[in-house]
Amino acid sequence: MKFYLIVAKGKHQGLPIPIEVDLFLIGSDKVCQLRSQMEGIGPQHCALVNRGKKVFIRDLGSGESVVVNDEILPEHVEWPLHAGDHIKVGPLEFIIQFREKPLSQRDLEEWALKCLDEASSKKNMAVIDELQVAANAKTHALDAASAAAAILDRLNAQRGIVKGRLRIAREGNVTTVRINDVYLVEEAELALINKELHDNLAHPNLRVLLDFKNVRRMSSTAALMFADLSRWLRPYGSSLAVCRLRPELKQMMETLHVGDRIPIFGDKPSALMAAW
Predict the structure, then answer these.
(1) What is the C-alpha to C-alpha distance for residues 254 and 270, in angstroms, rounded to an integer?
(2) Do 2 and 98 meet the contact criterion of CB atoms below 8 Å apart?
(3) What is the mean pLDDT of the chain?
(4) Beta carbons of 19 and 50 less than 8 angstroms apart
(5) Domain residue ranges in the chain
């Protein structure tokens, strides 16, 4: 069995980090396997102990408290970790996951992103459970069930529905389309994505926001495909924008003059608030 820390926050979100040694140190010191100089990270902040088929975490007491699933750990005590546990080490956040079988790097990265999605979904369901309990305490059971269903509908609308290689959601008057693939390179894969985009966006008067959060590599063919999509949407009275492009991908799109036709936003909130 192989253990992974999956980065849950920041520019490296979704990155799977294998734990391949019996003692895996996180901290700012050069002896640590995972080093960070961010404020709040101690020299040897914490240790992941790989023992048999189990992993434990120990706060070594040199930085901010280590938090697992919103619970502050006592210092110098080994704490067992389970699949899906959320770990905070100062400003760093991870989830822990296990795999029996090895994967290629591409499949591993896609698996890690799915693990993050599942963790987020469980967190949303926990919120729903809390709200449902509160509703039951104040209203008739039928009203509480209706309230919980409405909350679930809203969360699902924001989270979106996975359709093939896309996650499509509605946020206000914007249709957000997150591309699930990490690499947009192979022509056969691009053809499938292009078909799914056309199948799902053939509606009038849409404001379509393509979210590149997951995309790490993209060919020039893919960039031009999105330019063609923008032109295809216009007869429907629809418009297209993109957000969360990596700097190197944004530079490529600008070099190909795709950015001249499609607004590019650094973050999602800015894109949702802007007029385009």
Answers:
(1) 19
(2) yes
(3) 83
(4) yes
(5) 2-99, 159-273
Neighbours of 84 (CB within 10 A): 15
Separation CA 28–CA 63 (nearest Å) = 10
Top-level class of domain 2-99: mainly beta
Alpha-carbon span 235 to 271, nearest angstrom? 22
Q: Report the topology of domain 159-273.
A: Transcription Regulator spoIIAA (3.30.750)
* Residue 240: strand pairing partners: 208
Plot region of 52 (φ>0 → left; ψ -120 to 50 → alpha; else → beta): left
DSSP per position, 14-52: T-EEEE-SSEEEEESSTT-SEE--STT--TT-EEEEEET
3-class DSSP state of 64: coil
CA 64 to chain centre: 25
Question: Each residue of 74-97: pLDDT tens digit?
Answer: 888 889 998 889 999 999 999 999
Looking up tokens 């926990």, which residue turns up?
126
pLDDT at 106 over 80: no
Provide the pLDDT for residue 126.
46
